[in-house]
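Subject: Sanity check before I submit

Could someone independently write out the structure tokens for this chain? I want to compare against mine line by line before I put it in a report. The sequence has 106 residues.
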Amino acid sequence: MTAHSPGGDKRERILDAAEQVFAQHGFFAARVSEIAKQAGVADGTIYLYFKSKDDLLISLFESRMQRFNALLAAAIPPGATPRRSCCSSSAPTSPWSASSRGSPRC
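---
Independent answer below. Compare away.
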């Protein structure tokens, strides 16, 4: 949950910086001041967009999942069914293709 509405370049810069700092140092060792420095904002600016470091992590997860879901949605043709998607010849590298062990038979 964010203090400000989602959107804006600063918020995205903060999320990108948090992703990098969390990846480098781990969540518990990451410092908000390091995230702010990486994002090019003042320390206090983080708290205008996020209530806490925990809130920042949750928002980062939500943001990245939204991105991932949008990519998945764009990759699935309109009107595709799960069976048609996983068994089509256009998806030979699918882990669920007929040649995979334990795969559904089409």
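---
OP: Matches mine. For the report I'm noting this point. The chain is about 60% helix and 0% strand.
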